Inverse folding.
C-alpha cells in the first residue's frame, strides 16, 4: 500500500491505496466521489471521464499514483456555491440526459473541450466527445447544451 | 497475492538500470492507455511497472524538435502533442493526421507515440504513417543504443524487437523530399475503433516528367500480423504514368500483399478488399494534395 496525496476539486486529500491502483477506484471506493461512473473499465465508454490538469482523461486507465501533484476535477467540482454551473443547467434545459449514467463523463469531457476551445463548432464538439458514449439521448441534446453554453445563452 | 509494484524513475539512466535488474518481471508504462486495459483484462501480469512519465528527456515537448535532416520525437510525447505541435504539422503532416485518428480525445491526451509503437496492436494508426515516413526508432539499454528501422521493429501481433532490458527512447523521422505529400486514411466502424484497414501513402511526383511518380511509399495497418510497407505495389508505381488503371493495379497488388485476420470487426476477406479501396483512395488523395500544393501535375 502507498500513501497518496491528491488535489481533488481544489482540496488536498490523503488516502491509502495499492501502488498500481486506478484513479477511478480511488475516487469511488476510497474517497466516495461516486459521481464518476464505472462503465466499461477499458477506456471505451467515457463514463469515468475526469479532468487531469484540465485535460479529459478516462480515470479507468490512469494510475492514481501518477496524479500526485496534478489537479484532478470530478463532476462534484463543477457546481458553484451549491448551484449547478452554466453547463450543467444547459444540459437540463436542452434535454442532454435521460438515464444520467454518461452525464458526469459528458460534463467533464465538455468542460475540458471548452477550456481548450471556448467556441467549438459542432464538428469540434463531436470530436471532443468522441470518447463518451450515450445510449439514450442520440447526442443532439448534449451538442445543443454545449453550444448554448459556449455561446453564453 | 503479491502486490504489483510501481517504480517511478526520475532519469533515463535509473529506468534503464531497473530494466536491466527486473528484466521480464517488469514492463515500462508510458501513457498506460493500452497497458492498463491489458492488466485489467488479465492478459499480462508484470510484477513491476516502470513508470516513464517523470523522465523529462523522453517527455518534454522540446524533444519534438527539427534536426538537420528530420525530426526527433521523444517516446513520451503524447498523441495529442503530435496532432497539435506546429513543428510536427509542418514537417510531417501525415503523422499529425494519423494521430488525430487514434482512439478518442481522452486516449490521445495521455497515449504516447512510444507506447503506441511498443504495444503493436493491429489496426493502430501511427505505424502506417511512420512506416511511410521511413521512421527509425532508437532503443536504449545499459549496454548501449541501437537504431532500428521501423520496418524491422514489429515482429508479430503485440510483439516487437524491444528486448527486456531496453526502452524505446526516440522516434526519428528523416526529412521528407521537398515535394512530398502524404495522406493517411482509416477505415473503421466507429471513429474511436482501431482500423479495419489503414493506409498511409507518401508520394513524390516527378518534377521533370509530368504525370509520373518519382517515389511512392505505402504503409498499411490492420491487415496483417504487423504493420508493413506494400513494397510490391510501390515498385509497380515507381516511374509509371499515374493513370487510373495504374493506381488500381497498385491497389490490387497491395491487397495481395496483405495477410489479414478475421475478427469481430471484419473478416479477412473483407479486410483484403478494403485494402484495395483504401490504397486506391489514399494514392489519389496524395496525388491531388501534391497538385494542390503546386508540386507538378499528374
Amino acid at each position: 500500500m502507498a500513501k497518496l496525496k491528491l488535489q481533488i476539486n481544489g482540496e488536498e486529500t490523503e488516502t491509502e491505496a495499492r501502488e498500481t491502483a486506478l484513479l477511478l477506484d480511488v475516487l469511488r471506493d476510497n474517497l466516495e466521489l461516486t459521481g464518476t461512473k464505472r462503465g466499461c473499465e477499458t477506456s471505451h465508454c467515457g463514463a469515468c471521464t475526469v479532468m487531469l490538469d484540465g485535460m479529459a482523461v478516462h480515470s479507468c486507465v490512469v494510475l492514481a499514483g501518477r496524479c500526485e501533484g496534478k489537479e484532478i476535477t470530478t463532476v462534484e467540482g463543477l457546481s458553484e456555491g451549491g448551484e449547478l454551473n452554466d453547463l450543467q443547467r444547459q444540459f437540463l434545459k436542452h434535454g442532454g440526459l435521460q438515464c444520467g449514467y454518461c452525464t458526469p463523463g459528458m460534463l467533464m469531457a465538455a468542460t475540458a473541450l471548452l477550456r481548450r476551445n471556448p467556441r467549438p463548432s459542432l464538428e469540434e464538439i463531436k470530436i471532443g466527445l468522441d470518447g463518451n458514449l450515450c445510449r439514450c439521448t442520440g447526442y443532439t441534446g448534449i451538442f445543443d447544451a454545449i453550444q448554448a453554453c459556449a455561446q453564453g445563452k | 497475492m503479491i502486490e504489483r509494484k510501481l517504480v517511478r524513475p526520475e532519469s533515463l539512466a535509473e529506468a534503464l538500470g531497473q530494466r536491466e535488474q527486473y528484466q521480464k518481471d517488469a514492463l515500462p508504462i508510458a501513457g498506460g492507455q493500452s497497458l492498463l486495459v491489458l492488466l485489467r483484462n488479465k492478459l499480462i501480469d508484470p510484477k513491476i511497472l516502470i513508470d516513464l512519465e517523470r523522465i523529462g528527456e523522453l517527455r518534454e515537448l522540446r524533444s519534438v524538435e527539427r534536426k538537420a535532416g528530420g525530426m526527433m520525437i521523444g517516446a513520451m510525447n503524447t498523441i495529442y502533442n503530435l496532432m497539435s505541435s506546429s513543428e510536427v504539422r509542418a514537417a510531417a503532416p501525415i503523422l499529425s493526421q494519423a494521430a488525430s485518428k487514434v482512439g478518442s480525445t481522452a486516449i490521445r491526451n495521455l497515449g504516447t507515440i512510444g507506447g503506441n509503437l511498443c504495444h503493436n496492436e493491429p489496426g493502430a494508426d501511427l505505424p502506417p504513417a511512420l512506416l511511410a515516413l521511413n521512421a527509425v526508432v532508437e532503443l536504449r539499454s545499459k549496454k548501449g543504443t541501437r537504431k532500428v528501422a521501423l520496418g524491422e521493429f514489429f515482429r508479430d501481433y503485440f510483439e516487437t524487437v524491444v528486448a527486456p532490458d531496453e526502452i524505446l527512447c526516440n522516434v526519428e523521422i528523416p526529412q521528407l523530399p521537398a515535394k512530398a505529400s502524404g495522406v493517411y486514411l482509416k477505415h473503421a466502424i466507429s471513429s474511436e475503433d482501431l482500423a479495419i484497414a489503414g493506409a498511409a501513402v507518401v508520394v513524390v511526383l516527378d518534377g521533370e516528367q509530368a504525370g509520373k511518380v518519382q517515389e511512392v511509399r505505402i504503409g498499411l495497418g490492420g491487415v496483417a500480423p504487423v504493420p508493413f510497407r506494400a513494397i510490391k505495389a510501390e515498385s509497380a508505381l515507381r516511374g509509371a504514368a499515374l493513370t487510373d488503371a495504374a493506381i488500381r493495379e497498385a491497389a490490387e497488388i497491395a491487397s495481395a500483399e496483405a495477410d489479414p485476420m478475421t475478427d469481430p470487426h471484419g473478416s479477412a476477406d473483407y479486410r483484403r478488399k478494403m485494402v484495395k479501396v483504401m490504397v486506391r483512395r489514399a494514392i489519389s488523395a496524395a496525388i491531388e494534395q501534391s497538385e494542390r500544393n503546386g508540386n507538378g501535375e499528374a
Remarks:
- Chain A touches chain B at residues 1-2, 18-20, 22, 41-44, 46, 49, 55-58, 60-63, 65-66, 109, 112-113, 127-132 (CB under 8 Å).
- Chain A has two domains: 2-77, 86-150.
